[in-house]
Amino acid sequence: MEKIIIVGNNVAGTFTAQNIRFLNENVDIEIFTQESYPYYTRVKLPELISNKIQVNDLIVFKDDWYKDKKIKLNLNTKVTKIEADQKFLFIEGQNNPVSYDKLILALGSVPNIPPIKNARELVGKGVFTLRTIDDTLEIKEYLQNSNAKKAIIIGGGLLGLELANQIKNNNLDTTVVEFFPRLLPRQLDDECSFMLKEEIENKGIKVVLNAVTDEIIGNGFVTGIKLKDGQKFEADIILIQAGIRATIDLAQNSGLEANRGISVNEFLETSKKDIFAVGDCIEYKNQTWGIIPACMEQSKIVAASALGLRKIEYKGTTPKNTLKIVGLELTSIGIFDPSRDEGGSWEILKKADKKDCCYQKLVLKDNTLKGAILFGDNKAMSFVYKKMEQDVTREELMEILELYLYKCSNCGAEYDESKMEILFKALPNDWKCPKCKQLKEGFKKI
Fold first, then answer.
1. Gap between the Cα atoms of 224 and 299, Å rounded
2. Going from the N-terminus, what domains does the chain have, and what CATH number goes with each?
3. Lowest mean pLDDT among 105-119, 128-142, 336-350, 388-402
4. I want to staple 188 with a disulfide (CB 3.0 to 4.6 A). Which of 193, 250, 385, 426 is the partner?
5. Quick one: angle between helices 11-23 and 292-306, nearest 10?
6. Cβ-contact 445, 406 below 8 angstroms
7. Residue 344: is its pLDDT beyond 70?
8. Comparing C-alpha atoms, which of 113, 131, 107, 109 is closest to residue 256?
9. CB neighbours of residue 147 within 10 Å
10. What is the DSSP letter of 123?
């Protein structure tokens, strides 16, 4: 019977195993992972710190799931080397190598620690990264034992902001320092990012933008940070959430081609026969992804490829995120902030309601939906997901965003909400028609 080994039980590895089993009931599937837990969701890890949830709540697939699917899971198991020509693996602490017919590397990624002075030296002594359950438990223990009062989160990405929210819920004075001039630069445009910043600051979390951390201050234990512009901030704990790096050491040391990630082709095959790679650890056409939708999409392709079906080719994944950030719904998908360089006739429909912290933006190119931001109101999400990269009309989009056209009953001038910064209802009562000075009440919705 053919034996497929998967290294890694993250989202890419686990769903690859599930997809292989869906396509083939007989093949042997075995997963090796350094993790101490079956597959769990990383998105909710910060909630573990504030005791909002317990470890068991994070675990998505319990032991029964693996038994039902006939998947053998080996926890606390480190693969140290791959012998590609002989088709076997070496396991730390085991004398006998393990053989395979097909091997799938789902090695995931590790937190990126920027080149900040003292950052690596003070890891575990007040400096932490958050990627696993064990990381989270270590942070939790440090908070309990150190009597920490002030926290700094380096990185204003999705996990960094959620982490800041949960740290604040632990009654710590919390500051986020972000290298870029706005929060969530990969998911939001300037206007929406500003709204999010205000919302986060309303929760009592300080936000410092354009902040390049130069040094972590501390002698044995953390006492604060110094920015490149000379500003200093005190801290008892520092959490670095500055992106991720693909895990490629095992592949590289075993002779597989790798650059920023493990090099794969359109069937997710590596440079060595019968070895495949999937998820955060791969690089395809000079690009890495590091997002859950890419892992899910790739897991279907690699499952088919490993079984010799090679039906589907990978074409890359459109960036998309749907999640709760500091308690607010956020969906970000595709090209949401087209630049002049991208050419073509772009059109943007936008609805911003700062009072209710809602922001909706749909991006069209040549009447095709290319991207969207939905923040604080996700009613349009299913429409957006269904219509991405498809033809849409402006009228359709206005209807979905509940944007309207108002006409002056005196001179016929139009107020098109999709092109204005302010919704018609939000205009002051004494607002007048720019053309004939007719009062607001003289306009009719059409």
1. 42
2. 3-110+245-306 (3.50.50.60), 127-242 (3.50.50.60), 327-401 (3.30.390.30), 405-445 (2.20.28.10)
3. 336-350
4. 193
5. 40
6. yes
7. no
8. 107
9. 7
10. B
